[in-house]
Write a structure and sequence with these properties.
Low-confidence stretches: 1-11
Order of helices and strands: HEEEHEHEEHHHHHHH
Number of strands: 6
Organism: Sporichthya brevicatena
Protein name: HTH luxR-type domain-containing protein
InterPro entries: GAF-like_dom_sf, Sig_transdc_resp-reg_C-effctor, Tscrpt_reg_LuxR_C, WH-like_DNA-bd_sf
Distance between the termini: 17 Å
Number of helices: 10
Helix content: 40-55%
CATH superfamily of the largest domain: GAF domain
Largest sheet: 6 strands, antiparallel
Keywords: DNA-binding, Transcription, Transcription regulation
Amino acid sequence: MPSDVPVVALPLDLAPYVTALRTAAGTDIAAGGICDGGPQMTLTTLVGNRSDRLKFLDVRRGQGLGGKALALSRPIWVADYWTAKGITHHYDEPVRAEGLRAMVAVPFSLPDGVQGVLYASNRKAMVMGDRVLDRVVDVTRRLETDARVSAEVERRLADLNPGSALHPGRRDQCLRDAHAELMLLRDDVAAAHRDRVDALLTRIAHAMSPDPTAPPPVRLTRRELDVLIQVATGASNAEVAERLGLTEATTKSYLQTASRKLDAGNRVESVANARRLGLLP
């Protein structure tokens, strides 16, 4: 992705993910913490807790379950925190006060370099199992994807700013690349972020269309347009197929159909005609 405009660091609200994590994993409690840039992480969000003993607890990298997950950059779990031998026990007092035994911790990394950990825990000793671990990992990866999309949206909004220092030609290419990238990301993000992505896609199209209010003279299906957007970035049929999760034959078929609608003889002419008609930015 272009790096002409720095990524804007946004405040991260862990609450929706911690809430979703507790529901998905079916555990007694879920929690999340963020590093402050130093050697420690602060637990900022808890759901299902009985006290505030863990709230704002500082966890140093390498210590306890979360600190170990953070240091190793991989999920860590224990069947019984109180007796676990593979972790340090710097935080036994607040963990025991909350009555937590079985626990899993999964680290995450954000585009601006911020790191943190999501936790899920039960108040009885037990093997959490692959099902629980997979669900914790799924929520953590969703957090990372949403944060990546949010950062990219802010970057692209900066590109749309009239005061952008980018050369007009470079700016247009940035917007075309952004349009293609955001179309790929759109289906992978939560609904709230999808609305922001759709709004940005509309802004990009309007910014580069000679008459955005005019109805399109040619109507392409969603998949035909998806393929054409990726072709416009210079991707081959094989690359488009990989990006969109299609077979190469299906990709070629969509491109041929779009080309016929656009009265184009080849892929370059298809892209040019689509841009002239305002179908592509």
